[in-house]
């Protein structure tokens, strides 16, 4: 009897998780179902039943494919289906909500239901379809190059004009993007980088499954160094394996470490720290004091830290420039409003404290849904410029 009660207690603890796992898809599908099916058909007729069947099938498919793709089975095919369906559902949900708000103004123009609901449904369907197609094209294209001049107080004249090329959030995963990876490397090399950086979230999955997509990074040419840090997604899998693999293809992981680079007789400290999720793994987790231990305190520091919110510690330590990714610029509008609740910056160059700047990349690849809507990917060229030292 005790064993039976123990088993029941064990099952009950999973009920809230399962409920949440089903509640999110329900919310994503109920609003679009009402907008595109329920309201315009007035709840009756062949279109109502056919449309309801499509939404019910999608609702069942999303949690099932996400579990098969990202759960113990790690099915790449299921992952592609689930991730794509999640992205499409978010776009349709967002524009259904917007469409219903805009539709509140139609009665003022004398348009009432069911015509009002049908106009909203057609508008939402047209906009969502166009954005999904455009979003897939944007996500899968080779990123545009974004060049930004960054003034670094105390940077020696020998380092003025140093070109630091940043890629981040490549998220090599179930969708094989080997050709894309090779083209990204060609673009990076065309920028003539002095230093190349990868700011984390390299891949989703094991080294054994994903290394062919990552291996072209070994052809990046940067004479002053190629530096890599872990992102949170490495810690969902084999972080140490990726650190070792990046070492094997010629990149230098900065695992709470720094390297001093020299050009024209002047020096600059390039440091890197782990992602905060690394604390779950022994010997990992961000440790800025350790990363800067032994560095000349007179030299400016460029720090690789995956998440923008790590800027608090960087500013307190007097870091000149922190380079981050993680946000993807929101990836699929209007998701950036939710990202902003967790991170101080979503994209671009910003100042924090008296002496610290933060550059947040929108990312080079994409996570999960192969869509980017109003958040284009980027390969970033940060051109460092000398500036008078601040007191």
Class inferred from helices and paired strands: alpha/beta
The DSSP helix count reads 11
Indicate the multimeric state: single chain
Mean pLDDT: 93
Provide the gyration radius in Å: 24 Å
Q: Tell me roughly what share of residues is in helical segments.
A: 40-55%
Strand content: 15-25%
Q: What's the SSE pattern?
A: HHHHHEEHEHEHEEEHEHEHEEE
Give the strand tally: 12
Question: What is the end-to-end distance?
Answer: 73 Å
Q: Which word captures the global form? A: elongated
Query: How would you write the strand order of the largest sheet?
Result: 1-12-2-3-4-5
**pLDDT below 50 for ≥5 consecutive residues: which ranges?**
none
The main β sheet shows up as: 6 strands, mixed
What report would you give on this structure?
This protein is an alpha/beta fold and 391 residues long. Helices cover 43% and strands 17% of the residues. The strands form two sheets. The chain has a six-stranded mixed β-sheet. A six-stranded mixed β-sheet has the order 6-7-8-9-11-10. The longest helix is centred in the first third of the chain and has 28 residues, at 76-103. The protein starts with a helix and ends with a strand.
